Amino acid sequence: MRHIFLVAYVLILAGCTMGPDYQRPVVDQPDSFRYAAEDARDTSNLSWWRQFQDPVLDGLIHEALANNKNLRIAAANIEQAAAVLTQVRSPLFPQANYGGNAARQRVSELNAAPIPGYVSNPQNAFQVFAGATWEIDLWGRIQRLSESAQASLFATEEAHRGVILSLVASVANTYIQLRGLDEQLLIARNSMDSYGEAVKLFELQFKYGQVSRMTVEQARTRFETAAAMIPQFESQIAQAENALSILLGRNPGPIVRGRSLQELALPAVPSGLPSQLLERRPDVVQAEQNLIAANAQIGAAKALYFPTISLTGSYGQASEDLSDLFKGPARQWGYSGSVTGPIFTAGLVSGQVRQAEAARKAALLAYESSIQSAFADVENALVDRIKIAEQIQAQGRLVDAAREYSRLARLQYKGGYVPYSTVLQAEEQLFPAELNYAQYNASLYASLINIYKAMGGGWLAEANKLTARPNEKGHNEMSK
């Protein structure tokens, strides 16, 4: 038996692995980002959400990383992929088994030859045995399957990192959106209160004949316009709270608030090069691992053209008497080898090879597409931040001008130089300008969040430490 296993080991060492070895494809990539910020800082490995300096936001992100259901599903998928790798890799090693049986049988003594006296009737039979089988991976089929399964495991781990990436960005974005809606709701309520005071004043003046009914109704239109906006903002706030609750792994409900939008610190623009996205972005790394898995499947398919060599051995004891089962004469053993290979398969093997090659082409295109999408995501996020900042500056000037216009219009109205419609016209420009200004401020924070999301980064490792990962130790041992 030792000689047979030694020969098999030599054959394995001399054997060849079918199919192409993986080499990373050469991709066309820009040298730098067109809209990279000059004051960008290397913050890719930091927990960037802490730059907002809002402990409430920090707590919400930690809670989401610990309790989010999609993140737990992704963690369970990693465990499943690790188990598949263990299963696929197992044929590389001998498979041992054991068994035993016991039987008692009596044969009929009628219409049959006489049974000799030394033969007992009924008869007993006892047997215990151990066996081993080993498929010699001479052509590397199992090695390629293991390579594919390991790449699939790594791809699943990258999918888990991708969920972390999206989750942290979604929690931060939803929280910023919520604080922006809070700001807009406050503007609407303050405006409604101010317009309500004006309505009361004009109704009193109308009562004593100082103003016309038209002036009263003009003032009321501003009040009702602001009043109509409040339920809309309250509905959007409730929906944002519910969405954030689901991200946190809670049932829908209220969300505690931290700093206001004006009190939040503005995170720095992260620095990075296009080439770094190939290592940072989970979706890009996942696409490459899928390509590696598909590449390995070609070799596994091509190995089916060649024979399969297997060794089988068994050792056991057999006896008619249980008391004699473990005595020397009851010993039995055997070993054998087998070779099976295809002669005519009507395209079964060639079809699998072509299928694997086509799958690799699709995986390669998906990999190249993920890289281009990553570049576009970063460029879009960078230019979005720049243009939103420009919008905020212009909108701020518009708000200042509208406030001054409204102030002067009221002064002229009180002096009797212009009708109230002039005041109404000024306020019609100020109210939406203030709402848009609050919205643009929230969008600026969101644009920076999207930059961190688009660039990926080492902060994912820090976030990964905060996730609830059952059986983490066992998984790490398997992945090694």
Annotation, overall tally of beta strands: 4
Strand order of the largest sheet: 1-2-3-4
The CATH level-2 architecture is identified as Up-down Bundle
Percentage of residues in strands: 5-15%
Question: In sequence order, what are the helices and strands, one letter per element?
Answer: HHHEEHHHHEEHHHH
Low-confidence stretches: 10-14, 472-480
Q: In the CATH hierarchy, what is the superfamily?
A: Outer membrane efflux proteins (OEP)
Class from helix and strand fractions: alpha+beta
How would you describe the shape? elongated
Main sheet attributes: strand count, strand direction, barrel closure: 4 strands, antiparallel
Helix content: 55-70%
Count of DSSP-assigned helices? 11
Q: What is the CATH class name? A: Mainly Alpha
Please tell me how large the radius of gyration is: 37 Å
* CATH fold annotation: Outer membrane efflux proteins (OEP)
Whole-number total of structural domains: 1
Question: End-to-end span in angstroms?
Answer: 32 Å
